[in-house]
Amino acid sequence: MDTRSATADRARIESLFLALIPAIFRASFSPTGQVKHEVDSTARRISPATGWKIEDSLDLYGVQAWGNGYFGINDAGHVVVRPDQSTDREIDLYEVVRGLEARDLAAPVVLRFSDILRHRLRRLNDAFATAIAENDYRNRYTAVFPIKVNQQRLVVEEVYGYGREFGFGLEVGSKPELLAVMAMTEAESERMIICNGFKDDSYIEAVILATKLGRTIIPVVENFGELQLILKHARSYDVRPRIGVRVKLATEGVGRWRESSGEKSKFGLFVTEILDLFRTLKEHGMEDCLQLVHCHPGSQLQDIRRVKDAVNELAHVYAELKLMGAGLRYIDIGGGLGVDYDGSRTNYASSMNYTLAEYASDVVYRIANVCNARGIEHPVIVSESGRAIAAHHSLLVFNTLGCSRLDRFRVDEKAEQDFAGGDRVPQPVRDIFDAYRSISERRLVECYHDALQAREQALQMFNLGYLGLEARGHVERLYWATCAKIRDCCRRLESVPEELEGLETVLSDIYFCNVSVFQSLPDSWAIDQLFPIMPVHRLEERPTRNAVLADITCDSDGKIDRFVSLRESKRTLELHELVDGEPYFLVVFLVGAYQETLGDLHNLFGDTHVVHIKLHDEGGWWIEETVKGDTAAEVLKYMSYDVDRLYPQFARDCERAVREGRLSLEESQALRRFYELELAGYTYLEPD
Ligand code: PLP
Fold first, then answer.
1. Residue 646 CB burial class (10 angstroms; 0-12, 13-18, ≥19)
2. Comparing 2-6, 539-543, 550-554, 683-687, which segment has the lowest mean pLDDT?
3. Which end of the chain has less Cβ packing within 10 Å, N or C?
């Protein structure tokens, strides 16, 4: 095939699609259904003379509050990443994004900063080391990374590799996770593998054999039946296993994952069952095998009191069992260590009212306290902190495709003659125009109510057949123009009347983004999780638009309309005016935990490209690994399409159309080339 003409054909057809897709969005979102290019080509950058500073952007987007020292803005107005929190070694994100484009890795793209991962692991280790020293704790701490938080091989390998110097291990919750972990923990017999989740016969058999292989692997009994399987395989392979037990805490969790603990939780044994388990082990002369007690008080614990209560209860269970003769050595406090997504340091769902140091200090102090009071040795403290390790190191960058603006409706000079005229102008049109004309600072609420009423009346008349489409269009235009004028007046007031407070949100723009919320930010869609979002560049300019974000799926849920703020969450995000022909990139931070693995293929938008960026020893950054995003053929295969048959089938149809004169040969070729190239192409929109 002549690739040059194929590329040209593809470009032509793609540009048609590109033009069409935002138009489809606008058609469904805009009040008039008009399809019109929305980018304001007259928009000009606001000059520095407006007094906007980099610091203003830092404040506006709360970078210092949630960024944990990993992110900032440079003098060029670009987001920078500081993988080791030092301002000497910054990576310019805009430069990275443009550099990736030049390597055919256009946004949307997930950027992983391995150095941040390494730094998080060190911070976790150091926080516990300090707490251990301060509390005169006579044992050590280890983390086991729950790989469900981000199962990507490269991430797990990096966590495992960087965690070597601290002796950190891994946690699994299923057989496939166990398979991955068993292979990669070769020759590291002292590093722990904790096995949670439902376990069947073969799972337990594999764990027992892995013990024989030399791994420090601990199956955590989540329900009583698992104990019998452990006993069976331990006997048949003549192994003395290390056994853990998950305690069903009476302490209820809080927040979104509150049901992970408490009496109604899915997992864990009641105290009476734990006593039965201990008696059974004793009968088999295996009480020394019970080595670990475990709990999981829920993910993203926002309130430190829950951490303290859960750890305290678990420590008491530990102490009692230890005094009864169990061979306990480990206390595993599960996950729960939060991430301050909005930077507010509150017990709001997207935040946490404690620091990492406070978490470590409280955990160590509680356990030490209980053990000291009962006169028993201090156990090894284990935590399954996945979110706190992985969240910061990944960023999602995507480009905007265009925007829809509700405040674009203006009333021109001709309006007076069009709408104010006598009886020939329908009453609601005259009323709403009157409301528009009468707007003044003193009459804002009144005019707003008049406009609302006139619009309602117009709609009723239209539905009864007394108002034509033309008049309805006038009403619509006048209504939005009235709202915009009132909003503009409100902006000049010191305090906005309560009834008008929502106008900014109602009139906010919609920025269309080349991303799928379902694939890349599933928690934003499913559980209203907030993530910090901001522009990648132009941060030296004042943002003049308020917007919500819509993704490219054909689903009205595919949007983001809540944004982090230090007070309540914001309903709109401050963005810059789009400039014709210039890209505008947005970045979502803290997406390294759960987002990649929970994402789905809604509308067949597949995995995005993933790029691992590292600081280079000689300065600057370099790309360590690249994982290309799914192609259309790949996602079709996931859905059981026989991709090898699709193209020949389609090509046959094109041939038939040529024969029957419905397509010229050239047209048929263009369509066939498009089909063939797109099968191998990215599932997202690509620049020309
Ligand atoms: N351990 C268990 C048993 C879990 O179920 C989870 C997640 O819910 C975790 C650890 C990870 O917790 P986190 O999200 O706090 O990292």
1. middle
2. 2-6
3. C
Distance 594 CA to ligand 1 centre (A): 10
pTM: predicted TM-score of the whole model, two decimal places: 0.88
Q: What pLDDT was estimated at residue 121?
A: 98
pLDDT of 294 above 50: yes
3-state helix vs strand vs coil in the chain, percent to 5: 45, 15, 40
For residue range 612-623, what is the model confidence (pLDDT) as tens digits?
A: 999 998 888 999
- Angle, helices 153-162 vs 114-134, to 10°: value is 40
Distance 563 CA to ligand 1 centre (A): 25
pLDDT value of position 421: 63
Binned at pLDDT 50, 70 and 90, residue 1 comes out as: very low
Looking at per-residue pLDDT, the higher value among 265 and 459 belongs to: 459
Strand stretches in 209-317, DSSP E = 216-221, 243-246, 290-294
Pocket test for ligand 1, best of 144, 145, 149 (most atoms within 8 A of CB): 149
Contact 189, 217 (CB under 8 A): no
Which residue's C-alpha comes closest to atom 11 of ligand 1?
335
Contacts of 680 (CB under 8 A, 6+ apart): 631, 632, 633
Going by alpha carbons, the residue nearest to atom 7 of ligand 1 is 299
Residue 438: HSE in the Cβ half-sphere, 13 Å Cα cutoff: 17
Distance CA 63, CA 47 (A): 23
Residue with the smallest CA separation from ligand 1 atom 8 is 299
Ligand 1: atom nearest CA of 173 is 3
Ligand 1, residues at Cβ distance < 6 Å = 146, 149, 171, 196, 296, 299, 334-337, 384-387
Pocket test for ligand 1, best of 117, 121, 148 (most atoms within 8 A of CB): 148
Residue 35 reports pLDDT greater than 60: no
- Find how far residue 533's CA is from the centre of its chain: 10
**Could you give the CA distance from residue 636 to residue 408 in angstroms, rounded to a whole number?**
40
Residue 24 is predicted with a pLDDT of 35
Q: Whose CA is nearest to atom 6 of ligand 1?
A: 335
Beta strand spans in 310-448 (E):
330-332, 380-383, 394-404
pLDDT for residue 599 is more than 70: yes
Question: Domains, the chain, ranges and CATH?
Answer: 1-33 (no CATH), 407-503 (1.20.58.930), 642-679 (no CATH)
| Closest by CA position to 286, among listed 218, 239, 333, 220 | 239
* Mutation choice for ligand 1 from 196, 296, 333, CB with most ligand atoms inside 8 A: 296
Which residue minimizes the CA distance to atom 14 of ligand 1?
Answer: 299
Contact residues for 538 (Cβ-Cβ < 8 A; gap 6+): 45, 77, 576, 584
Mean pLDDT of 282-298: 96
The rounded Cα 194 to chain-centroid distance in angstroms is: 26
Instruction: Report the range of poorest mean pLDDT among 216-230, 267-281, 420-434, 667-681.
Output: 420-434
DSSP 682: B
- Residue 381: the pLDDT is 98
pLDDT tens column, 253-285 = 566 656 666 666 778 999 999 999 999 999 999
